[in-house]
Q: What sequence folds into this?
């Protein structure tokens, strides 16, 4: 837990333009000196904790146990939603109890949950990231588990289905559309259906013709819809939330 | 001054896209090894040192004394404006003497001012951030006050009014419009007037109807114009520089 | 090589929006703890290793020997192109062997080249930055040269002309257009021709009239086309790849 190998990883919908990320980092650097702070994503889909929860789980797996994730997609800030800490297979997650952390918790082999029941001296109504989540995340990363500010709970209040989500959950700046379907379920003969299009598999971009849309398993282990040297999401009219279907090929009579 | 607890905080109009921030960080990391470098804002309003000065002061207050702010909104780079260092209640500011640092200086209980009168061996005409301000800021953050490169001054050459600025000074990527009016002056019964709209107070976003514009005191302590799950600046037609007015409610006859 | 003074500097076309940079940094921070990681550019021109190679060389010169550059402009990822390490006058470059590193190599007084012939246990087909280049770059920066994963080579497979490139190679967010022509070749009497426009020299922005386009030698040592308080690229219709010509003034009869 924490210690020399810890990292603080930020996963938010704050965007890059504004001073919010920097204000959070000011708190983290002060409270956990020497711990690396890494920006993983500040473009988590706005107001969409479900897509965010799928993305967060997929992306977190390439970080080592001991990593502390600072997680904010929090349209209900200042309202009645609770704040929580999750430990899932050794990785730590700090954020709102609105489902965002629930998929990482549900898919872990072992997980623990705490409610944050601490009120900092200065708590802005709209910036719990800086005032509440950052001090807790920093304390964990610095190896000082803040037991006096947490209460163990059996489970989160808001829990999303831990299964795959057959929707578009993220569109990157190249126009590649990530689905919430883990690639382990699909073999190369599968066809992906989205918005009336049927897409076949290619291993890498260079195996597709220029502009051809296709699907493949991306570096986060998810089925992704892409096009070679083209913006797949624009070409196919895709948006976060769109439904995706997998079609298995017909079984051959010979089997 | 400086020492183990120092941080280097960047406040510029360089944007994120370009190599300018990275080149500055290369100098800072070399000259102040081990000091955390934090990006606070790279979207300070272009060519607008006055709005920048208000923003810088408001945002700086959540950082501890000892923090060193690297500050660049500098349309006059390479011209006759001087370069300066300000120490204001223990926080350090390094940048152009064009007013950008003047509000932080004026509002501090105690402040000191120096002119940078050093010319580095290699000084580009257009990138004083990398060549001039970064080495000075790094030296201060590393605890090596560069006395031989500075001359104490009574005050800055360019000084903006230290009072509140009743204008829009920043619009964030959510569309929330920050004013230069500190929230301590306003109570919840005040109405904010902007561009022909009258806005009432809400404590948090969730207290407003979907799309309803309102005002509240933001996490930097400033009056901000926002809308619940909507882009207030687009909806109300707001831009940086727009004038804002506060209307007090009529005094009740009963008092 | 590596050691306490090393830095890891990122030069990619990943953009800022997506989780790719953060995933790379997770690997770098784990494998080279304590080494500063600096984002130099994530907006290298897409699919354009030639422009990228010119930019990379120009920008790298302001970093000290020992710096390790993580370099990705890699449309052929997963295909037959090789991966390589270049050491050029003490600076290290890790990336694809598609020409991106070739100008830095060719212009150095002394350079060495290695092929990366290691296949990591988990190598995604599309994210060699995270899986292949990052571990190699981190090992070099940490002072552990990975000799067992590299094979010395006489030269790179793909090599661009090491001379200046008389084209636009980058457009910054202010609208300033960088050329691939080093400024040492031009004196102030030269005229720059681009898209039918003839531009004269100004030392700094403030020496031009408002909106006037001009050329000057920028902070990376390259000829740049700019305009005072205006977006030169939009005003002149410039794009990356556009051809630029320098016209010497007529020789005076008196000489």
A:
């Amino acid at each position: 837990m924490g210690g020399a190998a810890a990292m603080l990883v930020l996963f938010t919908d704050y965007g890059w333009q504004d001073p919010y990320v920097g204000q959070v980092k000011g708190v983290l650097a002060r409270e956990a000196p020497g711990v690396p702070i890494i920006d993983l994503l500040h473009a988590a889909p706005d107001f969409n904790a479900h897509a965010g929860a799928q993305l967060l789980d997929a992306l977190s797996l390439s970080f080592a146990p001991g990593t502390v994730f600072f997680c904010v997609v929090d349209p209900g800030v200042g309202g009645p939603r609770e704040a929580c800490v999750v430990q899932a297979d050794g990785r730590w997650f700090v954020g709102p109890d609105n489902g965002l952390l629930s998929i990482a918790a549900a898919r872990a082999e072992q997980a623990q949950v705490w409610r944050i029941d601490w009120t900092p001296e200065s708590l802005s109504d709209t910036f719990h990231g800086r005032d509440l989540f950052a001090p807790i995340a920093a304390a964990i990363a610095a190896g000082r588990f803040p037991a006096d500010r947490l209460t163990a709970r059996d489970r989160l209040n808001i829990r999303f289905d831990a299964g795959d989500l057959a929707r578009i959950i993220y569109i990157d700046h190249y126009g590649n559309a990530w689905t919430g379907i883990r690639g382990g379920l699909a073999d190369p003969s599968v066809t992906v259906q989205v918005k009336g299009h049927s897409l076949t598999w290619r291993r890498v971009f260079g195996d597709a013709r220029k502009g051809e849309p296709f699907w493949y398993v991306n570096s986060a282990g998810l089925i992704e819809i892409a096009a070679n040297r083209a913006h797949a999401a624009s070409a196919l009219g895709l948006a976060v939330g769109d439904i995706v279907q997998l079609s298995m090929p017909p079984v051959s009579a010979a089997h």
